[in-house]
Amino acid sequence: MKKLICCSCIIVFCLFVFTACDKLPWSKPSTSRPKPAAAGPVLAQVSGWTLTLNDFNGQIDSIIKANKGNAGVAVSSLGLLARTFFPPYMEQIDFGSVEGKQLYLNFLVNLELLAQEAENRSLDKDPDIAKDIRRTKVEILDFALLNEVLKKVTITPLEIEGFYENEYKKTLESIDQRKVREIVVDSETKATAVLVELLQGADFASLARTRSKAASAEKGGDLGYLVYQPNMKFKKFWEVALTLDKGQVSSIFKDPGAQDYYIVKIEDIKKGEPESLSKIYDQLEFLLKQKKSLEAIDGLIAGIKAKVSVQVNSKLLEK
Question: Does domain 176-271 have CATH number 3.10.50.40?
Answer without folding.
Answer: yes
